[in-house]
Amino acid sequence: MNNVKNRQITILEMLNSSNKLLIKDLLKVFGVSEMTLRRDIETLEKKGVIKKIKGGIVRNFKDSSDIPFEIRNERRSLEKIAIAKKAASLIQEGETIVIDNGTTALAFANEIKDIDNLTVVTANLRVAWALSDRSNIKLILLGGIVKNGERSTYRKVGLETYENLFPDTFVMGASAISIDSGITDFDIEDATIKSKAIQAATRTIVIADENKLGKTAFAKIADLNAIDVLITNKSLSKQIFTELQLKKVTVILA
């Protein structure tokens, strides 16, 4: 089952870089039978993320953020858990935390369940569900319009919240981080809310796997100097690590 999921995730990652893939090339990459590959393609087509064409497939999503949460959640799951554990180790009892949307944010929420006397603010319905039965955590769920597929809320209520709340820590995911562009997101409304949360919080911890680094998305969230700590995985390239250090970004490898 894991091999099937890994193949499907890899196909989507390849499509994210190239709009079109040929069946004959995919067969060479994976070394599976044509029937097996066809099953993978049919599964992805049913999920609405690809379209079949003669001799190949094309993507049916704008960018990686459009890939269904359930598929993204399977990608690099061990790395996300390692990042989440490292981020959780920085949280103290009694803190007020804002938890962002995304798959790594959900992994982080699962790692803080046993920390006492936390207040968690989130627009992430999955995070809220994961923490909803914890008596040691006061949970504040932000209202707004539910974003289909993501199970999160957004728009005006989120913006107003950060004008009146001053959390200790904002644990933020990122679609893209680069030396030149800073922290960016594919969605302009999400970027605006994240920017407000950074301004409101005493510190910002960014949790992002290495695939998000060295890239730029559509909408600016903040410059790199807004990051207090960046946690990413150990396989981060030495070049990017050095560039971040030169920008005085504190990087923790998990």
Structure description:
This protein is of the alpha/beta class. The protein folds into 2 domains: 2-61, Orthogonal Bundle (Arc Repressor Mutant, subunit A), CATH 1.10.10; 75-253, Rossmann fold, CATH 3.40.50. The chain has 10 helices and 15 strands. It has helices at 2-17, 23-30, 34-46, 69-74, 77-88, 103-111, 125-131, 156-161, 188-200, 238-246; strands spanning 20-22, 50-53, 56-59, 96-99, 118-122, 137-141, 145-147, 152-154, 169-172, 176-178, 182-185, 203-207, 219-222, 229-232, 251-253. Strands 6-5-4-9-12-14-15 form a 7-stranded parallel sheet, with helices on both faces. The longest helix is centred in the first third of the chain and has 16 residues, at 2-17. The protein is globular. The two termini are 26 Å apart. The mean pLDDT is 87.
Summarize the SSE layout with pairings:
Blueprint: H1 2-17, E1 20-22, H2 23-30, H3 34-46, E2 50-53, E3 56-59, H4 69-74, H5 77-88, E4 96-99, H6 103-111, E5 118-122, H7 125-131, E6 137-141, E7 145-147, E8 152-154, H8 156-161, E9 169-172, E10 176-178, E11 182-185, H9 188-200, E12 203-207, E13 219-222, E14 229-232, H10 238-246, E15 251-253
Parallel strand pairs: 4-5, 4-9, 5-6, 9-12, 12-14, 14-15
Antiparallel strand pairs: 1-3, 2-3, 7-8, 10-11, 11-13
Helix pairs in contact: 5-6, 6-7
Span of the ends, CA to CA: 26 Å
Individual helix count: 10
Oligomeric state of the chains in view: single chain
Structural class computed from helices and strand pairing: alpha/beta
What is the name of the CATH topology of the largest domain?
Rossmann fold
Residue share in β-strands: 15-25%
Number of domains: 2
Relative helix content:
25-40%
Spatial order of the strands in the main sheet?
6-5-4-9-12-14-15
Rg from Cα: 19 Å
Provide the low-confidence segments as ranges. Answer: none
The average pLDDT value, as a whole number, equals 87
Largest sheet: 7 strands, parallel
Using the 3D structure, state the CATH architecture of the largest domain: 3-Layer(aba) Sandwich
- The run of helices and strands is HEHHEEHHEHEHEEEHEEEHEEEHE
CATH class of the largest domain: Alpha Beta
Shape: globular
Q: Give the strand tally.
A: 15
